[in-house]
Amino acid sequence: MEFVYQCQNLDEVRTQIDRIDRALVSLLAERGLYVKQAARFKHSSEEVEGGKRVDQVMRRVEKLAGELGADPRLTAEVYRTMISHFIASELQEFASMGKPLPTA
């Protein structure tokens, strides 16, 4: 982390956390829009579930966590949860386009 504002009191800390939360939620929303688009380019539900891509993303973010000083376990847990949600969302989008879902 290159620069972190040195807060003078708890209110300043909370203001900075609120600013970061807004940015995180905005980025989640943006990521979700791209996930929705991805369904258009996939031909099977197996592609949507994307085991290889999930592994690739997890390796990349774990490396990023190390580089940026983030807790690697927290980062991995957040990403696993987020990816699971986005896969479910993308499967719904996939189905809404009339593409077949797996029968389990």
Automatic annotation (TrEMBL):
Chorismate mutase domain sequence ranges? 4-94
Q: What class of enzyme is it?
A: isomerase
One MF annotation (Gene Ontology) recorded for this entry? chorismate mutase activity
What keywords sit in the KW lines? Isomerase, Lyase, Pyruvate
EC id: 5.4.99.5
InterPro entries registered for this protein in UniProt: Chorismate_II_sf, Chorismate_mutase-related, CM_dom_sf, CM_II_prokaryot
Q: Does the keyword Isomerase apply?
A: yes
Tell me which Gene Ontology terms the entry assigns under biological process: chorismate metabolic process; salicylic acid biosynthetic process
Keyword RNA-binding in record: no
The name this protein carries in UniProt is chorismate mutase
Species for this entry: Aquitalea magnusonii
